[in-house]
Amino acid sequence: MIDFELTEDQKAVCEMVRDFTANEVAPLARSQDTAGELDSALMDAIWQLEIVQSQCEPDGRSAFLAGLVLEELAAGDASVATAVASTMAYCLAITDHGTSDQRQALQESLKAPGFQALSLAVMEPSFGFSIGGLKTEAVASGAGFRLQGAKSMVPLASRCRSFLVVARYQEGEAAFIVPADAAGVLVREPCQTVGLRPLELSEVVFDNVGIPQGAMLGGSNGSNIQSIIDASRTAQACIMTGLSAAVLNHVVPYVKERIVHGTPLAQKQSVAFRVADIRIDTEAMRWMNWRSAWEIETGQNPTRLSALSYSFAGEKTMKIADEGLQMFGGHGFVQEHPLEMWYRNARAISVLEGVAGI
Amino acid sequence: MVDFSLTETDKKLIDLVREENEIGRAFARELDRTMEIEPSRLRGVHPAVADREDPFELLEGVHEETSGLVIAEALMFMASAQDVELRDVGGHEAFGSMVLRNFGTDVQKEKYGHLNLAIGITEPDAGSDPGAMRSYARYDQETDEYVLNGEKIFISFFNKFDGAVALVKVAGKDGSRPEFGTFVLVKGAPGLIESPQMRKLGVRKHELSGFVMQDLRVPAVARLDADFGKTLSNFNHNRPIVSAVALASCRSLLDFTRDKLKAAGVELDYTQGTSGRSALVDRFIRLESLWEASWGTVMRAKWLEHKQGMYSNGYRTEASIAKAMGAKAARDITQGCLEILGPESLSEEYLAEKWFRDVRIADIYEGAGEIQRVLIARDIFGYKKELS
Questions:
Q1: Any idea where the Acyl-CoA dehydrogenase/oxidase N-terminal domain is (chain A) (predicted)?
Q2: What is the ipTM of this complex?
C-alpha cells in the first residue's frame, strides 16, 4: 500500500541528525575542504551517534533509514556524508553477505571508541573506467588467493585498516577483505581531488597480495557483488539529494535579498523558475531514492531502480549546483560562500561509483 | 511506514485498464485520423468491452482495498495510454458538474444536478491570466437575470455535454470593481452559440470546442457561490492526473522503444556504469529515469491528497510539482524515444508518433509549466503577487 509517512522513530532519527548536521557538520565543511582532511573530533562524534554500528545489528538494519541519514548529513557536507557512507558500505557488505567469522571480526572493529575508516575499493585508475570492466583480478592460489591490480579513488585510504576489494574472480566478480598492512598493498599519497577533498581519495595498489581463504566475502560461495553496487548507487543518490537540498536552502534567502535593477532576483522569472526547478528535481530525486532504498530493504531486485536513481540524481545535482552558483554571480565563484565547493563536490560524487552503501 | 508496494486490488485495477487499452489500440489509429472532424465520439459502451467491468466504476466500489481512492485512480491513469475511449464519458470528466456538486446549493443541485457540465475558463485572449478575461455578466434587476457576453474556448466535451459552468467577470454594484462569478449555462438557451470543434496536434479523441455568449440570459439561480479560488481548488486534484495521463503514453512509448531496441539486438544493461554503455542505451536509461522520477512526484501529491482531502490546499505545491515534472518529462521522453527509434518511428503504421503528439498538451493545459513554476516559486519565496 503506497505510503510516504515516515515512522516516528525515523522522524526522530532524521531530526537528531538534522540538528547535529546544522550545528556540528555544516560549520566545518569549508575548513575541512581547505585542509583536505576530515576533522577527527567531528568524525568521532559522528561515530558516537552509532549510525553505522546500529545498522550492523540485526534489529537495527534498515537500508531505508541509512539513506535518510545520509541525505541529512550531506545537506551539511557531502564529504562527511560520503566518509560515513564509505565505512557503512564496508560494514554493511560484511553484515549482509559475510560469513559468521567475517561478521564477528567486524563487530570487534565496531567497538572502537572513535571513527573507523573502512572502504570499498571498486574503481580503477583509467579514463573511461566502467564498473563492468574491472581489471583487478584474484586467482586461487594454494589455500587462498592472490590479488593483482590497482584501485583508485578509495576514500580515506591511508586511514583504512582494511579494504573490501571488488575484483574479477573466475567467471564473475568477488569481494575480498584485505588488511591495509598485508604484504604487497601499497597505499599511495592522496591525489588531491577537485571535490570531496577531505576524503583524501587515493590509489591503492595490490601487487600479488596473498589472501587467506577466509577473506573472500561470503566464503567459498562468494557474494552478490551487484547488490553492493546497487546499494552504493542508491546511497550516493541520497547524498546528492542532500547536497541539492543544501543548494536550495542557501539560494532562497539570497535571491530574495539581492536587488538587481530595482527588484529582487527572486521576482525575475528567469531566476524564480530555476529555483522552482531545483525544488522539483530535488523532491523527484528524494522519492526515487526512497523507492530504491525501500526495494533494497524489502529484498526486491533494486538494480534497475538504483541505476535510474543514480543517473537522475547525478545529472540533476550537477545542474542544481551549477545553477545555484550562477545565481550568486561572482559571489558563487569565491570561497566566502559554499557554492563553489558544492559545485566541485557535485561533480565528484556523481562520477564516483562504489564509495558508499546503505 | 514508507511503502511502495501495491495492494492486490491496485494491481487488479491496473491490469484491467491495461487490458482494456490493449483492446482499444486496434481502433486507435482510425480514431486519431477522424475523430475531431465528426462528432463521432462513442455513445454508450463499445462492443469490444461490453462484457468487461468498467475499471473506474469498479474503483468506486473497492477503493478501500486500494492504496487509496485518488492514489489508485492515478495509478490507473498512469497504466493506460487511453488511446481510445471505449466507454462513454461523463462523471469524472464533467468538471463543471464537479464544481456544482461541491459549491452548489440544494436548489441549484436540484435544478442542474442531472446535467453533464463542462467547464469554461479560457478565452481567446486569456488563458492562464484570468485578469485578462473579457467575458462579462451584468445583473438585470427587473428580470432577476444575469446577461452574459463573451467567448470561451478550449472546452473539453462541450459538444457532447449538456452545458457548462463558466467563469466570467461580474459587474460590481454601484460602479465597484468587477468580481469573478461562476454560472451554469445550459445548451439551448438563446444566445449560447456553440463553436466548431478544434483540429489539433494530438489527443484527437478528446473533443474540444467552445461557445460564444451573446446577450445570453440566465436566471439568478444559475450563479454558483464558487469564487475563482474555490473553482480552481479542483486543480489540485487534476494537475497530477494530467501528469499521470501523459506518463501513460510515455510508458507505452518506452515499452515500444525497449522492444524495438531488443529486436535490433540492443540490450539494456542496468548493471553497467555510464561509460560502459552505448550512447543509445544511456539516452534510454536517462529517459526511463525521468519517468520514474515523475512517478514519485505524482504518487507523493496523490498520497497527500488522500490524507488531506481533495479540496485541501495543503498539497497544492506538490500537485504543481507533479504536473511540472511529469509534463516536461513527457516532452523529453517522447521526443527522445523517436530520436532513438529513428526514421521508422515517423510512420503512422505505429502509434509511436501518436504518443509523441498526444502528450505535448500536458505541459499546457490545467496551467502551463510556466504557471506551475510561478506557483512553486511563490510557495518557496512566500510570495503572492510579487511574482507573476
A1: 7-105
A2: 0.96
